[in-house]
Amino acid sequence: MRNFWSEIKHWFSGNKLSVIVLIITFVFLIANSYAIKREFYYLMFVPVAGLFILLFVRKLEFGLLAIALFTPFAIDYEIVKGSELSMPTEPLMIMFMLIFLFRVMLKRSYDRQILRHPVSLAVLFSLFWMLVTSFSSEMPAVSFKYLLARLWFVIPFYFAGVQIFRNNKRINYFYWCYALSLLIVIFMTTLKTFSNFSDLQTMHRIMRPFYNDHTAYGVVIAMFVPPAFFYIFENKQLWSWKRLFAIAAFVLLLTGLVLSYSRAAWISVLGAVAVYFVIKMGMKVKWMLLCGALAIGLFFAYQADVMYKLGKNSQDSSYDIADQIKSISNISTDASNLERLNRWASALRMFEERPVTGWGPGTYQFVYASYQRSYQLSTISTNAGNLGNAHSEYIGPLSEQGVPGSVAVLLVFGITFGTGVRVYRTLKDRDNRNALMALSFTLGLMTYYIHGIFNNFLDTDKLSVPFWGFTAVIVAMDIYLCRKHGDHGVQTPV
Questions:
Q1: pTM of the shown model
Q2: What pLDDT, in 10s, does the model give residues 5-27?
Q3: How far apart are CA 446 and CA 441, in angstroms?
Q4: 216-236 burial, b for 16+ CB within 10 Å, e for fewer?
């Protein structure tokens, strides 16, 4: 008998982890039985949360990849009345953010070059001004909630992402983790689209529940097209399985883009192609930005004539692709275009009233109703604020955070673009593969910068994950690859 107990003791001492797992499992099963009886269903997610906490603690980079993999399948779920989270990604982002910050404070090992980078300074300024305007907000609770959501997007996928992406293989893993899930969504959506070709409104919502509408679906596909094209030629073997897979992915992305019927997404890809040729011509970034500013200035200078010409177009949105393209410039009868103009006009009136601090981050949809004018209302206008925000990544912050908020957005976008172009030009004669990778991710971001004129989605996980991830890729390549070649990776792009 004594030998029996000694053997048991010996087994326990050699299998402590297994014993702990068994005890936790046993306790959970009992607790779970009680929870189901009492309808406390949230308790069933405790083991999953524990698994991810362990993953984040042991392998932080795997946690980032796991979130990217789940994001295209995430679904909005009302946690408490009036408050939703994207499940399961946003709770995972919150856990990731807290563990990352704890590790940084504990080990003090964060690379300070990242914080000194011009893109990081622009991001920090935007977060700081968001904090300031949350205190002066018309609805502080809404603004601080908006700020917290921005933090759990930016900290994991930008500030942690830059350090994780110092290893180039992780850039590939990150891209394909999101892309693979997105391709599955595109495949399912495309199959459903074939049976609804005659109903445009159904086609606009057919990608639900994974993406809220065709615009969010279209813009994320557009972002992934330029890197997908790069990966076709990234492998040197002519007909390797990797190349064949990359070709199939590129074709499916283009199919999804066309069938998204998102006119803004189509424009953004064409705009990125145009920017590619301008970059290849060797034009400096400052001249590109100046040309962009000049084009905007000419539009406002001759806006009366432009609006008169556009007002003659009466082609509404249609499932016929040619008619859909013609409807892009219809501001006389197309409800979507008219509503966008209505939202912009309302935002500008809000800005005129509070030009410095705005109304507070995230408050536009709750405030804009009284700033609408009857002659600008469309058939889809509403006073309830339940159909989105200002529909612009530039005008929205102007109304919610004043001039400094809009400037912060322009700085983040402009400096990131300039950094991406400089990384490409720095590496193209030394490391052509990485140079082309930097260019492809820069063009991916460019599709969003262009699309940001017509919509804003950085308050959602679906777009924030690739947007801040791609931005982190550019900064990581600037710091760790340009520095590797003896260049100063933190100089201001020109």
A1: 0.85
A2: 565 566 556 666 556 655 655 56
A3: 9
A4: bbbbbbbbbbbbbbbbbebee
